[in-house]
Each structure stands twice: as structure tokens, then as C-alpha cells.
Amino acid sequence: MRIRLAGVVTDGRQTSLDDGGIGDSDYARPILVSFRDVTLLNSTGIGLLLQLNRRVRERGGQLVLHSLPPYIQQVISFMKLDKLLQIAKSEQEAHELLT
């Protein structure tokens, strides 16, 4: 499953990370999330990512984030979330990380 985020990722009303486009069976599959067109990610958006990551792991799936703009990569690294979340530089690299 591919999710392409764009614009502001701050809460469930503004992004597809709020379960609106993800069914229960999707959590058990690989999910690739593109951040290429994201302009803002705040603490609520980070919380949504962590919640999605937890659900995917609980159901045996795999979540890979890719194409993060530099400032989002810096925030993720500063918070040490790159130790918890799988992050790839590109969509191609994200596909290569899938097990």
C-alpha cells in the first residue's frame, strides 16, 4: 500500500494517516508513506506516525517512510525516532527495505 502525503500533516482531518484510507487488513501488509510534498509536520502528526507504526507492527506489517524533506528528517533524527521508524531516502530504497 502506498500513501502520499502532501501539505500539512498535523491531525487526522488533514491527512490519510487517520485510518480513513487504511483498513484492518492493510496493517498486515507493507505500507510505504511518501513525505515528498509535505510542508509541515507537527507533534500531532508525529503522534499519528507513531500510532500507525504501532498498529502495523502489531499486525505483522511493515511501515517505511520515504522522501522526507531535510527539515522533517532533522526533526525525526533529533527526536531519535529514526531508531524506531524505518526511513528511506527514496521510494526505490523504501521498496528495497521491504522484507
Please give a structural write-up.
The protein is α/β, with parallel strands linked by helices. The chain has one domain: STAS domain (Transcription Regulator spoIIAA), CATH 3.30.750. Helix content is 32%, strand content 28%. The chain is built from 3 helices and 4 strands; from the N terminus they run E-E-H-E-H-E-H. The chain has helices spanning 43-58, 70-78, 91-97, and strands at residues 2-9, 30-41, 62-66, 86-88. The chain is globular and about 30 Å long. The mean pLDDT is 88.
CATH topology: Transcription Regulator spoIIAA
C-alpha Rg (nearest Å): 12 Å
Largest sheet: 4 strands, parallel
Shape-level CATH architecture: 2-Layer Sandwich
Shape: globular
Range of helix content:
25-40%
| Strand count | 4
As laid out across the biggest beta sheet, the strand order is 1-2-3-4
Q: Determine the N-to-C terminus distance.
A: 14 Å
- The named CATH superfamily: STAS domain
Percentage of residues in strands: 25-35%
| Poorly predicted ranges | none
In round numbers, the mean pLDDT is 88
Helix-strand category: alpha/beta
Domains (count): 1
What is the N-to-C succession of helices and strands?
Answer: EEHEHEH
